[in-house]
Amino acid sequence: MPAAAVVSRLRRRLSRSPRADVAVSIGVVVLVAIGALRPLMGARLEPWPLTAVGWLVAAAVCAALFFRRRHPVAVAGVALVGTGAFYLLSEYDGPLLIAFVVALYQVAADGRLQAAVGLASLALVSTAIGTVAGNGDVNGVALFMFTGWLIGVVALGWARHSRMAYVREVEQRAAGDERMRIARELHDVIGHHISLVHVQSSAALRRLKKDQVAGAVLAEEALAAIKDSSREALRELRTTLGVLRQGDEAAPTAPLPGLDRIDDLVGAARLSGLDVRTLIQGERRELPTEVELAAYRIVQESLTNVTRHAVRVTEATVSVEYGVQELTIEIADDGHGAASHGFKGAGSGVAGMRERARALGGELSAGPCPQGFAVRASLPYGSDHGSQRTRS
């Protein structure tokens, strides 16, 4: 399952919609309202004006719950003061304490751990003082249980806050990885073909300036190559941008490029004046799609770097070796010295190739070699592919 789908499912599970908040608040109101019916039944324990004041206090506390998302600490403070006032003024016990518990949970879930602990401690100390003062409704056992409830509520709220923070971090990481992947694909696709267009058009202009007649034939070949490169760039760009399509749009159907199209890369590089040779070793086999794509992109980016940046380069060799457990690719050229490729250490081209190799559990190196400069990558086939070879 894609990381984005996992994160979306976690967020749906953990997030609470405004409707859910309203439902919780209404549930507390219903419970408190049921408890407020006690003065209407049985013998009177207090004057009606005092009962009315208790009802107003309870209503104010319940109304404050509707704003607990925007002002969690303030609402919890109002709930604590209102609940304490209600139990001190009214002779009728009731479930108004639930309102404070809900508000306290919201404070902890909002990440205000110190405020939640402070409010819980204040509620506990106030209740303990009332017990010591002779309040017969709360004894030592009830006070102990109340302490456990407060600790549990704060712990649950903080656990939810921590979980939501983790989900946000995973979501940001997944979004960053997706942006990097798309940027890498766009860099490889656009950079390669635009580089070829630039090299081929520059070569055509030079030939025309040197010899109008003979250069016209060569310029026509270069223009044909430019046409092919631009058409291929558009095709691959549409395929790459398909990952940004909405779910209700048609997905791209063009196959992803692989090792079977390396000859196209070699042919395009030859049109720029570079002598490119290919060397295939080992028994060809069907590879996972991600390995095929990574191999193609590494060859593509390496040849792009050679045609654009290498100094006094005349030839290059693309070697592909099908090993027992991994695919090895090497692109070597006869550019003079590491300085001719100094851009590679700081540019995004080699960094993107390394990311592709590491994503598959492989590795990539780029640096000077006895003949000039070489890029070498090792791409593991994967556990499934390896197990199939072992059985065969």
Quick structural overview:
The chain is of the alpha+beta class. The protein has 13 helices and five strands.
**Intertermini distance:** 30 Å
Biggest sheet overview: 5 strands, mixed
- Which descriptor suits the 3D outline? rod-shaped
Helix-strand sequence: HHHHHHHHHEHEEHHEEH
How many domain regions?
2
| Percentage beta strand | 5-15%
> How would you state the average pLDDT, rounded?
75
Trace the largest sheet across and list its strands: 1-2-3-5-4
Radius of gyration from CA coordinates: 36 Å
Q: What can you see in these coordinates?
A:
The protein starts with a helix and ends with a helix. A 5-stranded mixed sheet has the order 1-2-3-5-4. The chain is built from 13 helices and 5 strands. 30% of the residues are buried. The longest helix is centred in the middle third of the chain and has 71 residues, at 140-210. Helix 5 packs antiparallel against helix 6. Helices cover 65% and strands 10% of the residues. The protein has helices spanning 3-14, 18-35, 48-64, 72-89, 97-109, 113-132, 140-210, 212-241, 262-271, 289-309, 343-346, 348-359, 383-391, and strands at residues 275-281, 315-322, 326-333, 363-369, 372-380. It has 392 residues and is of the alpha+beta class. The chain folds into 2 domains: 3-172, no CATH class; 257-392, Heat Shock Protein 90. Residues 1-7, 246-252, 337-347 and 384-392 have low confidence and may be disordered.
